[in-house]
Design brief:
single chain; alpha/beta; FAD/NAD(P)-binding domain; five-stranded parallel sheet; 29 strands; about 40% helix; about 20% strand; globular
């Protein structure tokens, strides 16, 4: 008889638990049901980008159907309101769900700490809906301020306050600092009228980070972004038009609360034990509550570290406790001993807008530029794990192409969109030219006799080449030369003379690498590696022919076009650094670059191949076995 596992919540922990169970259950008869009130998973670590209008809201929503395609996980859209642990049941307003094992992964919600008027008058940033609401409100504030005659009301509309200088608060105010500049310009408002404030009761911002990172972020926010930082202060008596810090009133129509969280479900309502000095659920070392078949993971769980302190409510904690709970459920089903769940925190990263990030990875403080890269890579890695190619592509698209905030000069150009089918004629013609080059080499005997040395101008007999009728002399005239020692670029004219008369003349370009004194890297490589023996020469000679034909077929069919374009660039670079590239083929360099931009998706096989590969990857990743053909393997999601 199959065992029923019910998971409540499709946040980071719930998704990880469901995917882990599905992958590791193998032949175990396990029914996995994931219950959530939404049909999507939210990237909570990125919602400040939506609130600050850096990216579209679609950038932080991942459909659950997309995550759990090709799995045995049953996704149910419902909201659990009642729990009966003694009888292994949970209830919504309309439905009842029975289970053998339960994983509670409902996450957390903002904690208002009983501050008077805070819940009614402040915005929160803890959901997709919160982010959209803040974004639209800020737009409205600038629209109203542009027409407001009353100076006091105008000041309130243009004052934006974030309560809490932790990760969420700092990231939110950083996004506002960039976006409000753009909004002020669009509405004809002096940027100096816009007031950005962040308030915290601690003595420094980002108090959980190393003091050096905290100080670095503080200076950047204050000096570069013009953010007013108020520390050692508490917000009180919040009204619709402002709040008090002690006796001082700060007028604002926008207070965003990001200063604390608590479990989505109150511990008392769950009839569970609360951890000491915490509002989170007390669990044992296996992530179980007092009921052996009920696990609590993620932000709700007060799993203790080696110092008997709850692990911080962060994504790594959610992922690792969820994976540990899922493994222990399978251990229990299989009659094995349970394993202690341990969380290894690898580090933290906090962005202050697009161009500044501080991080601490494995105890090391990384420089700003590397921190920015690491933050992107961490997000890419997570999306790769749950959605494969499609999720990563969508993330890159929103972050670098469809970014909504003010763009740098280069960004304005590379983010301009174009329908890829415009590239289809170029791609096909380009492919035909490569195929023609390969076929011509076959006709010339490249597959049967050594010809590479002569082609490279390094024939052992010293001849430069010949026409059927007479030998010719090759003369090189330099038109332009740029010698940087490491790189030496030459633009010249090659003339072929017979008995002193020019019979042909053609422009060519050549790039010499490490051409120092009598040493030339490419020439050395060709003589000592490529042409070292007749066997090696034939190998490379045949390889060139195969690659030219392969690239031609890939481009004509639009299959793996990006890879084909990269190979094309590689071949052209090889020619550029050895024989030189002639005027008649210069265009191929630019065509290689152009066809990298998804040219195979426009009337090409990549339109079908890319979704297929993504589905094969997801099926393999989620089920732990490789299958090339299965139901839905060619499904394509248009988002």
């Amino acid at each position: 008889m199959s065992k029923r596992v019910v998971i409540i919540g499709a946040g980071y922990a719930g998704v990880e638990a469901a995917l882990t169970l599905n992958k590791l259950k193998r032949k175990d008869e396990v029914e996995i049901t994931l219950i959530d009130k939404n049909d999507y998973h939210t990237l909570l670590t990125e919602i400040h980008e939506v609130a600050g209008n850096r990216v579209s809201e679609e950038a932080v929503r991942v459909p659950l159907k997309e995550i759990f395609d090709f799995t045995d996980v049953k996704v149910v859209y419902d909201e659990i309101t009642k729990y009966d642990f003694a009888n292994n049941r949970v209830f919504s307003d309309k439905n009842e769900y029975s289970y053998d094992y339960l994983i509670m992964a409902m996450g957390s919600k903002p904690n208002f700490y009983g501050i008077n008027g805070l819940e009614d008058n402040a915005f929160t940033l803890w959901s997709y809906e919160d982010a959209v609401k803040i974004r639209e409100h800020i737009k409205k504030c600038f629209t109203l301020a542009a027409q407001e005659k009353d100076e006091e009301e105008r000041k309130k509309l243009l004052t934006f306050v974030v309560g809490g200088a932790g990760f969420t608060g700092v990231e939110m105010i950083g996004e506002l600092a960039h976006w409000t500049r753009q909004l002020a310009r669009e509405h004809g408002i002096d940027r100096k009228e816009v007031r950005l404030v962040i308030v915290d009761m601690m003595s420094r911002i980002l108090s959980t980070l190393d003091e050096r990172n905290s100080r670095k972020a503080h200076e950047y926010m204050e000096k570069k972004l013009g953010i007013e930082i108020i520390l050692n202060a508490t917000i009180d008596n919040v009204k619709a038009d402002g709040f008090f810090i002690g006796d001082k009133f700060i007028g604002t129509r926008t207070l965003i609360w990001a200063a604390g969280i608590k479990p989505c479900e109150d511990v008392d309502d769950l009839h569970c034990s609360a951890a000491a000095n915490s509002n989170r659920v007390e669990v044992d070392e296996f992530c179980r509550i007092e009921y052996d078949n009920v696990y609590v993971v993620g932000d709700m769980s007060a799993l203790l570290d080696e110092n008997n302190k709850p692990y911080p409510a962060m994504v790594e904690n959610a992922l690792q406790t969820a994976k540990g709970a899922a493994k222990n459920i399978l251990n229990s089903i299989r009659g094995k001993d349970l394993e202690k769940v341990k969380v290894k925190m690898h580090g933290t990263m906090v962005s202050v807008g697009r161009y500044f990030t501080v991080s601490e990875i494995m105890g090391k403080i990384l420089p700003v530029w590397l921190s920015i890269i690491m933050k992107y890579l961490v997000n890419i890695h997570y999306l790769w794990e749950i959605t494969g190619f499609r999720g990563v592509g969508r993330y890159i698209y929103h972050e670098f192409i469809e970014c909504k905030q003010r763009k740098l000069f280069l960004e304005k150009h590379w983010s301009t969109k174009m329908q890829v089918w415009w590239l289809a004629p170029l791609r096909v013609f380009f492919g035909i030219m490569w195929l023609y080059e390969g076929i011509e080499k076959i006709k010339q005997g490249w597959l049967s006799s050594p010809m590479l040395a002569s082609f490279l101008g390094m024939a052992s007999d010293g001849t430069t080449g010949a026409t059927p009728s007479a030998a010719f002399i090759r003369r090189i005239d330099e038109i332009f030369s740029l010698d940087l020692k490491i790189f030496h670029f030459i633009l010249g004219k090659e003339s072929r003379l017979v008995e002193g008369n020019v019979i042909t003349s053609e422009l060519f370009a050549k790039l010499e690498i490490l051409d120092i004194g009598s040493f030339n890297l490419v020439e050395w490589f060709l003589k000592n590696i490529v042409l070292a023996t007749d066997g090696l020469a034939m190998f490379f000679q045949v390889l060139v022919v195969i690659l030219e034909i392969l690239v031609g077929l890939m481009l004509i069919g639009g299959a793996f076009t990006f890879v084909g374009s990269v190979i094309s660039l590689g071949l052209l670079f090889m020619f550029l650094t050895s024989t030189g590239i002639y005027k008649s083929t210069w265009w191929m360099i630019f065509a290689s670059v152009a066809t990298m931009g998804g040219a195979g998706r426009g009337f090409g096989l990549d339109y079908y191949i890319m979704p297929y590969l993504n589905n094969v990857w997801n099926n393999c990743k989620r089920n732990g076995k490789l299958r090339l053909f299965f139901k839905g393997c060619f499904n394509r999601y248009e988002r």
